[in-house]
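BUG: 3D viewer hangs when loading the predicted structure for this chain

Environment: internal workstation, default settings.
Expected: structure renders.
Actual: progress bar stalls at 90%.

Input used:
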Amino acid sequence: MKPLSGTRPVRPRAALAALAGAQFTVMLATSVVNVALPRIQSGLSLPDTVAPWVVNAYGLAFGALLLAGGRAADLLGRRRTLLAGLTVFGAASLAAGLAPSAPLLVAARAVQGAGAAVVAPAALALVMDVFPPGPGRGRALGVWGAVSGAGAAAGVLLGGLLTQLLGWPWIFHTVALGTALVAGGVAVLVPRVPGGTPGRFDLLGTTAVTSALTALVWGLTAARGTGWSAPQVLTALSLAAVLLVAFVRVERRHPAPLLPPRLLATGTVAAGNVLMALLGSVWIALFFFLPLYQQQVLGYGPLVTGLGQLPLAAANMLGSTLAPRLARRLGPPVTVGAALLTEAAGLLWLARIRADGSYAVDVLGPTVLIGLGLGAAFVQLTVLAVAGVPRTDAGLAGGLVNTTRQVGGAIGLAVLTTLAGSVTARAATGRPHPEALTAGYRTAFAVCAALLVLTAALVPALARRGTEPSTVPRTGTGPSAH
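Structure tokens produced before the viewer hung:
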């Protein structure tokens, strides 16, 4: 392969390994705290109202800043932006492990999320730079999907292992060390691509959309603890709506908008992002409710709960690896639909969990199905969401698809936790607490399954509507640029 920079030959596989490592660390940090949170709460004497923000601060900053991070990568240069993001991410991880108090820990997690918001879209755009349209890019995205799912599952495993053996600060120290290794790999293995795209940074539009997403994610997160009718929740959601309207008006008038209309009109970008938002609402909820069932109902410790994620991670990697091959034979829409229905079947099976159940009977089989479907669906929806996007907008497209997944996840988790909580409260009358909790979890998994069936039903119409042969080049993964 010819060098992109004119300085040394490009080794695509080595570059992909470094870029996939960057995505792995981002996904790892998303879930690594979940199992460790009870130990963190007791170690720092966190009030119940503060403890969830150790998780929420990361997701809030990550989701709100992804679009800005993607656009910065396009304008400033993806490799240098990725290295800067990894530096911020790693430093914040180290600070989180050393934090002596709740405010400093929450602040460090927010900065960690901001770094991740730069890393994720820049790394995905660099994958698109290194692998031109064709079968090679499809296989690269299969690896990308595999490490994304494996990172989320490994976060639960690593969080449980480190918390139980070394103490909760080591979950952050380990992420910081891993980030330093990834940054070194990026510096050595990822080629210097041509500099940033000339253009103006849409500061007003960026401020409006970042503030809107911050208010939206904060309001949805707060609703999980206070209820939907709480004044602060209603105020945040109303502010988000006003700011989103303002963002649309700003974008219409700006000569170089943050989110140009051409991007959503390209290929299957709009369809891919809508479907990714729906998948995200189920993805994040799964990694929230499943460890809770294992710990609060089955009584497993952090380490055993983490080990229980290994079959899910392995199935996810297998599904991600098979996705490009299936798409070449069946086409992306059929592959996405089949993957979503496979995941829905696993969640419907999981909706039969029992309070007196076991991992082997109630969890293992469903999570294998879920992992297969989730891996394949994530890869192909990423393909659809960046189909036909020109190189100048690759970072923004990567930021957009990550934003829709994160925001979809925040909405889904807020709705599902409220629903599960209300079912548990009603079931608690005259029933043991584990049975009441199980009733709530069953409801959440059943709703997730129904949502995925609905998503699968939307795939043919959305994908067909967005596919335009004249603008979407055919590749090894079907009618998309990936």
